[in-house]
Amino acid sequence: MKTIIKYFIAVLFLCALGCSEDTLDPEITGTITGVVVDEETDEPLAGVVIKTNPTTTTTMTASNGTFTISPIAVDDYSIQAEFDGYTTGFEPASITENNISEVIIELSKNTEDNDPPTVPQLILPEDGAEDLDLEVQFIWDAEDSDGDEITYLLQLRNGLTQEIQDFEVVQDTFFTVSGLTLATNYFWEVTADDLENDPVTSSISEFTTLTQPDNPFFFTKLEDGNNIIYSGNQGSGANPQLNQNILQLTNAENNSFKPRKNATVNKIAYLRNVGGDTHIFTMNLDGTNKQQVTNAIPLGGFRVEELGFTWAQDGGSIYYPYFDKLYRINVDGSSRTLIYTTPDGSLISEIEIPQFNQDLLLLKTNNFQGYNVRIYTYNTITNAEENIILENVPGAALSIDISADGNRILYSRDIDEAENTNYRIFNARLFEHDIALETTIQIGNDVVAGQNDYQCRYSPSEGGVIFTRQENFPSAVPSVYTLQFGQDDNDKQIFEPGFLPDWE
């Protein structure tokens, strides 16, 4: 018995000794941090459920798409990211002792349950529409049941040249295209793309533009260093529409400016630089059939942009200045005739002729600096001056016109009466002189200090004028305005940019 008792005591002692030496080691851990982003946009995704395999703590991404799991036992893991609308993403991570492991998980959108947008339905212009303006608004209809942002591609094909124009439109289901070609059959279609499914395309619709524009206005625009002539309209109603029905008449390769229409022959005369000279050309109202008129003797004088010319009322000839001389030339370039020479050697800058008296000339002359301006009428039958409209007034005068009966004279001059080597004009205003009443009044209410109103012309009814308005610094953008006599709010902007207008 004593032997047995000693044996058990020995066993217990050994067990106690063994237990005292077998202590538990502490768990070895690290940290994992990461960010979850959209695969296409790289935008962080908030609220993404983050799990690990082997399983540890489950967490969610913060508002900036980041997450942290700490502590996490040292091991190799697969980090799983789950988010509604996206496929589940996985990224491996190895956790080492007391270190931070970083992962980036990119999630791609799940398109299995995403429907494509409906096929676009073309609304306007209607299929087969004719005589449309050169500016057309396209309207279509399409929907996306998932609320995805839709990108539309409007494709427009010119039926004559087969040129295709593509216009990308985001979300909106309308788009306006300007600068179309006259008398042209166009084809158009719209493709809708939600960036999740294959794009869907509408049927093809067609329309035809008008053959001849009803554009009563002509003006010039400066584009890429060259002047280009355009025609346009102002729409209907009391409030004109800006840049309505714009049609380009001259090409961008030539410097063409100062259009003047003759209603008798339905032609436009204009100026164009040829080499180092400025010549008169003519063209049809749609810009076709361009013909050079002057050759041996071009226009000449102070500043080519200040030089003016005029049609004879029958449209058979044109009057133009060459320094101190005034010539008349047939529109086919024949029979150039000297009509008048200034007695004092002053330069002729502008010429106008009233509709009902072809023997009466309205002239504007100046010196080589553009000043010492005289505006007067001259009778070619009596070879004498008849009426002096403006003289002995310092400063610049910039444009003239005469009424059909020859009794009213329209002109512009700088009321600051400034004279300088740069020919800078500070406050040009419009004036109308009545020869019978011997009165001169300023016209125009809305012009303010620092603006110039100039390049003025009577309207066809002579119930108003068209003119250019521009700030008085060189880089200012000019605009074309109309003004109706007897109206309180009478200045209406119709083209911008634009200058050297004509209204016939």
Description:
- There is one protein chain.
- This protein is mainly β.
- It is 4% helix and 48% strand.
- The strands form 10 sheets. Strands 9, 11, 12, 14, 15 and 16 form a 6-stranded mixed beta sheet that branches.
- The longest helix is centred in the N-terminal third of the chain and has 20 residues, at 2-21.
- The N and C termini lie far apart (141 Å).
- It comes from Patiriisocius marinus.
Compose a concise summary of this entry.
InterPro entries: 6-blade_b-propeller_TolB-like, CarboxyPept-like_regulatory, FN3_dom, FN3_sf, Ig-like_fold. The chain is mainly beta and 504 residues long.
Q: According to CATH, what is the topology of the largest domain?
A: Neuraminidase
Quaternary state of the chains? single chain
Separation, N- and C-terminal Cα atoms: 141 Å
CATH H-level name of the largest domain... which superfamily?
Answer: TolB, C-terminal domain
Strand content: over 45%
Helix content, binned percent:
under 10%
Inertia-based shape: elongated
Q: Please identify, by name, the CATH architecture of the largest domain.
A: 6 Propeller
Content-based structural category? mainly beta
| Biggest beta sheet summary | 6 strands, mixed
- Low-confidence sequence ranges: 1-6, 11-23
Number of domains: 3
Number of helices, counting only DSSP H or I runs of 4 residues or more: 1
Whole-number average pLDDT?
Answer: 91
How many strands? 40
Rg calculated over all Cα atoms: 41 Å
CATH top level of the largest domain is Mainly Beta
